[in-house]
Task: inverse folding
C-alpha cells in the first residue's frame, strides 16, 4: 500500500507489513492525496503544491500554489491522474478552481470556478474531487455541506447534502461512498440519494478499536471491504481499519513507531489501472 498522513512529512510504501520505500518532502503541511501510477510514478498533493515523482525520487512535474502568506494564497489538497499525461486537481482559493493540466505540454485544458463561501476562507474548501469513469467531476464541498457531480461542461447532474463531506468516490457499482468527518461516518448512497450502507465509527466499531480522530477518507476494496484512515491523536489510536460489508473488523493498523498518521491509502494489489478514471476505488 501507498500511505500518507497530513501531519507527517514522509510517505510510505508498505509491503507485507514492512516499509520498503519512503519519500521525505521536508517541513510544512500537508499530504492529503496520493496515487501510484502504472509506470511506478507517484502523484501527490502537499498543500502548497502538487507533484509527480519517479520511483527514484526525481520530480517530473510540479505545480506550485501562490505564496502561503499572501492574502490571496491558494492550496491544493486533491489530485487525480487522467491517463499518464494529465492531472486533475482543485486549487482552493478565492475563487477555488478545478483544473486539468497536460503535464507534458503544460496546457491548462480545464479551468473552472467552483462554488464557495467567501467568508469561510481557503483552507477548508475542498479535500477530494474525482473524475468518474464517464468523465464527470465528483466534488466534495467540505464547508458547504454537499457532494455534487458535474458533466464535462460543468452542468450539475447530481447533488447530495451531507454535513461535512471530506471525501466522496464513485464506486464501480454506480453508488457513491462519502466520508462525513464531522459526523464520524461513511455512507454509501445510490443515484436516488438512498442510503445502501452506512458505517458509524462511534457505534459500529468495538470499544478497543475506536478511532481517536474521525476518518477523513476511505478506500473500497475489490472484495467489498472498506479501509478507513485516521490521523489518530497524539501518536495514539488506530491509523487504518478494514471492515467487511457486514461491519466486522478484519484488520487494524496501529504502528506509530514505524509510520505516521493516515489521511489516504492506496492498496496496490487491487485490480485496475489507477490513471484510468473509475478503475480505482480510492
Result:
Amino acid at each position: 500500500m501507498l500511505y500518507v498522513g497530513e501531519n507527517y512529512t514522509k510517505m510510505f510504501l508498505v509491503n507485507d507489513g514492512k516499509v520498503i520505500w519512503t519519500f521525505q518532502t521536508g517541513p510544512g503541511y500537508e499530504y492529503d492525496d496520493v496515487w501510484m501510477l502504472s509506470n511506478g510514478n507517484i502523484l501527490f498533493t502537499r498543500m502548497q503544491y502538487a507533484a509527480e515523482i519517479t520511483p527514484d525520487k526525481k520530480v517530473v512535474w510540479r505545480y506550485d500554489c501562490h505564496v502561503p502568506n499572501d492574502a490571496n494564497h491558494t492550496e491544493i489538497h486533491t489530485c487525480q491522474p487522467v491517463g499518464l499525461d494529465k492531472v486533475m486537481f482543485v486549487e482552493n482559493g478565492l475563487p477555488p478552481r478545478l483544473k486539468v493540466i497536460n503535464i507534458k505540454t503544460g496546457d491548462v485544458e480545464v479551468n473552472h470556478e467552483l462554488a464557495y463561501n467567501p467568508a469561510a476562507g481557503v483552507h477548508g474548501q475542498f479535500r477530494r474531487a474525482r473524475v468518474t469513469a464517464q468523465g464527470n467531476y465528483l466534488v466534495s464541498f467540505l464547508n458547504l455541506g454537499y457532494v455534487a457531480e458535474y458533466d464535462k461542461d460543468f452542468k450539475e447532474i447530481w447533488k447530495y447534502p451531507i454535513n461535512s463531506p471530506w471525501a466522496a468516490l464513485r464506486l464501480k457499482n454506480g453508488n457513491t461512498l462519502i466520508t462525513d468527518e464531522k459526523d464520524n461516518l461513511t455512507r454509501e448512497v445510490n443515484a436516488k440519494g438512498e442510503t445502501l450502507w452506512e458505517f458509524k465509527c462511534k457505534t459500529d466499531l468495538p470499544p478497543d478499536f475506536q478511532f481517536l480522530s474521525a476518518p477523513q477518507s476511505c478506500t473500497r476494496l475489490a472484495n467489498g471491504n472498506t479501509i478507513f484512515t485516521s490521523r489518530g491523536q497524539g501518536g495514539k489510536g488506530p491509523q487504518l481499519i478494514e471492515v467487511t460489508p457486514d461491519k466486522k473488523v478484519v484488520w487494524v493498523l496501529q504502528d506509530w513507531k514505524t509510520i505516521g498518521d493516515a489521511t489516504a491509502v492506496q492498496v496496490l494489489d487491487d485490480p485496475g489501472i489507477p490513471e484510468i478514471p473509475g478503475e480505482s476505488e480510492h
Notes: The longest strand covers residues 75-82. Residues 201-204 form the longest helix (4 residues). The chain is about 0% helix and 45% strand.
